[in-house]
Amino acid sequence: MKQIISAVARNPVIPNLLMVTILISGFFYFSQLRREAMPEIKTDIVEIKMVYPGASATEIEEAIVIKMENEMNGLDGVNYISTISKENAAIVYVYLKDDVPDKQIVLQDIKDRINSIPDFPKDAEKPIIQIYKTESNGVILVLHGDAPERTLREMAFDIENDLQTLGISQVQLSGVRDYEIAIEVKRKMLRSYDLTMNDVANIVAQGSINLASGSIKTRAEEYKIEVKGRKYHATDYRDLLVKVRPDGTAIRLSQIADIYESFEEGKCLGRYKGKDAVLITIKRTGNEDIIQIANTVRDYIHDKQPGLPKGIDLSIFADFSEDVTKRINILITNGWQGLVLLFFVLWFFLNIKLAFWVTVGIPISFA
Q: Which GO terms describe its cellular component (predicted)?
């Protein structure tokens, strides 16, 4: 150690080069730091998401959720399981015990069991299994203007896809309603054809389901057979057979009801500045930088706005990165002001050389 100190003392170029290297490295790694409003909080919850396009909540429950629950019953480290079955998707939360020594081992056990289930629906997407992590808002956009609800909805989903293509992982839409098929039955026609509302409801339910029809086994593989009968458009229901009269005349659903595509009732609709609107919430997760996300969104809005139809605007409703930027600016401003004050105080009471090296030494120690 003494030899190193003496060598540095004899050759002042070495410490100067070392100082410059430390400063450059410090500034480089400072620019790579993740900036966030709130730190990420990991929980003792495993989240399982599985998408099954076109499936009802009941089908999700029977074809996915129950199988997952049965497979994970009795798994070591699991406290209890909570599930959500909704249209097109299943969400399962697995709450781990407090005394689990290694959550990653339990997570891998859950993955192995879920992936070993052989009879998930063919059209279902691969399950996403991960430790549940907290999310924080990054930027909230608002798409608003004089346009039909369907147009705003489709444009909002296009914007969501564009943002995800740019590398933003979490984008949520609010103020949009899902499509639904409305069937308004005419009472007069029911009486004329001797039908009841229950008859029509049962016929509609039975005429729009996917039926499991067994399986074919070979020596090496097993093939599941399923009859696809679910209907997704109003036109698909119009020719649905309701009744056959004694004279052989077929009564179709379109003869006794008005069938059209609409939106779900009872859900919240967005309004902004007196016009229909959709809120687009962009969240920060994992290692994402909130300021980088905000810059990406601003650039996207700048490029997207000229291509939007006349009367429709895409603007920033709330930018949570501004608070982070202000805090960083306050920190930097206080830092350099403190260094300047320290330099002049030491210069006034001692000497300028000592003041210079002490002032330089403080940022080097942080670097």
A: plasma membrane
Rounded CA separation 185/330 (Å): 66
Asked whether residue 367 carries a pLDDT value surpassing 60, the answer given is no
Residue 363 phi, psi (nearest 5) = -65, -30
> Distance (Å, rounded) from C-alpha 140 to C-alpha 149?
20
**Tens digit of each residue's pLDDT (9 = 90 or more) over 309-322:** 888 888 888 888 77
Residue 186 token pair? 């005419």
Rounded-to-integer distance, Cα 99 and Cα 96, Å = 9
Instruction: DSSP letter for 183, please.
Output: E
User: One-letter amino acid identity for 216?
Assistant: I
Note whether 210 and 230 are within 8 A (CB): yes
Give CA–CA dist 216/29, Å, rounded: 60
- 60 in Cβ contact with 90 (< 8 Å): yes
Q: Which amino acid is at 365?
A: S
Tokens of residue 199, six digits: 């008859």
Residue-wise pLDDT for 87-132, tens only, equals: 788 888 888 887 777 778 888 888 888 888 888 887 788 888 887 7
Would you call 30 exposed, middle or buried from its count of C-beta atoms within 10 A (0-12, 13-18, 19+)? exposed
**Cα distance between residue 79 and residue 155, in whole Å:** 43
Asked if residue 243 lies in contact with residue 192, where contact means CB atoms within 8 angstroms, the answer is no
Closest CA to 294 of 314, 327, 316: 316
Q: Which residue ranges form the domains of the chain, and what is each CATH number?
A: 42-133 (3.30.70.1430), 136-178+267-319 (3.30.70.1320), 179-263 (3.30.2090.10)
Q: Which residue in this structure is represented by tokens 């956009």?
A: 141
Phi-psi region of 266 (alpha: psi -120 to 50; beta: other; left: phi over 0): left
**pTM to 2 decimal places:** 0.59
Please tell me what DSSP assigns to residue 148: -
Residue 245, both tokens: 């009269």
CA dist 30 and 22 (Å) reads 12
As a whole number of angstroms, the distance between CA 293 and CA 128 comes to 24
For residue 294 the two structure tokens come to 């905000």
Whether 291 and 325 have beta carbons less than 8 Å apart is answered as yes
Cβ neighbors of 184 (< 8 A, separation 6 or more) are: 257, 258, 259
